[in-house]
Amino acid sequence: MTEAILLVGGKGTRLRPVTVNTPKPMVPAAGVPFLTHQLARARAAGVEHIVLATSYLAEVFEPYFGDGSSLGLHLEYVTEVEPLGTGGAIRNVAPRLTSGPDEPVLIFNGDILTGLDIRALVDTHETSGADVSLHLTRVEDPRAFGLVPTDPTGRVTAFLEKPQTPEEIVTDQINAGAYVFRRSVIDTIPADRPVSVERETFPGLLADGAHLQGMVDSTYWLDLGTPQAFVRGSADLVLGRAPSPAVPGRCGDRLVVAGATVAPDAKLTGGTVIGEGATVGEGARIDGSAVMAGAVVEPGAVVTDSLVGEGARIGARTVLHGAVIGDGAHVGADNELRDGVRVWCGARLPDASVRFSSDQ
């Protein structure tokens, strides 16, 4: 296996304001853009050539990763003029692929943090003779996902999008966002129009009698589509719960990126990461949180399960719990923000002006 497609064109709407200035795959997780972890894991599995299907803020990717040689990869970039959906994005990059018609091509969604055994998925694809193989994982509450029931041999029998009633929940197996396509199957996807691989391509292939194989791999898996999930994923990378060869340092309770300044009596726990050039003041306590590059957490502030954007400032003694602070925002001293509150990029909250949560 030497070739893959990474779908990195989404707008990251659920992650706003984190994605106002930065595409979702480039938001730092454990000190580096999240995409770095995916690229490093693909390379470790033997992938050499990756085509990035870009759209939203597409101009950000290539200046950072270049030709991929620093990661031991050959990277190419294809930008959609108009968003084409997951299937359309796959078809749009097909001319850049070099695989033969019957060779496997790996495809990854750009917002999934997973411990998937990539090599095992490819082996499953090749030994089963499938046209498409899907990574499946099991979840306790599958209502927000697409269900993928399989027969005893692992062959996919149906695709059921986001069931709501108990009768519709026939399995706890969901589409986990990683696939292996037979190269020739990619060419059957309609070109130059939006296509959903989940709602159109896969059900269509199944209806036409194609062989779709599921491989259940229940190692670490997390959809990073919400701020709360993204913060947790970053912390899990730092703690070593989620595997990645790209974490810039040893796994542990904290990760302080080179160039950051942390007061000696500040307490960092729970997989907290402090980005390049960020400052943490005296007596501050930060747990399970991500503080982005250039941000400032002033003395005595308490930050828990929160994300502090680039260049943002958190005032002295302010409390954040499950909050998201956009790039360049300034939260004054003695405020309290909880339970999913989001402060937009560049916003200013005066001292002692706010004590509320998102459900108030």
Per DSSP E runs of 2 or more residues, the count of β-strands stands at 31
Large-scale geometry: elongated
Radius of gyration: 21 Å
- Percent strand: 25-35%
Helix content: 10-25%
Low-confidence stretches: none
**Distance between the amino and carboxyl termini:** 52 Å
**Major sheet:** 7 strands, mixed
Count of DSSP-assigned helices: 7
Whole-number mean pLDDT: 93
Helix/strand-derived category reads: alpha/beta
Spatial arrangement of strands, main beta sheet: 5-4-1-6-11-8-12
Tell me what you see in this structure.
The strands form seven sheets. The protein has a seven-stranded mixed β-sheet, with helices on both faces. Strands 14-17-20-23-26-29 form a six-stranded parallel β-sheet. A six-stranded parallel β-sheet has the order 15-18-21-24-27-30, with no helix packed on it. The longest helix has 13 residues, at 227-239. Helix 3 packs across helix 6 (197-207). Helix content is 18%, strand content 29%. It is an alpha/beta fold and 360 residues long. Residues 253-333 form the Mannose-1-phosphate guanyltransferase C-terminal domain.
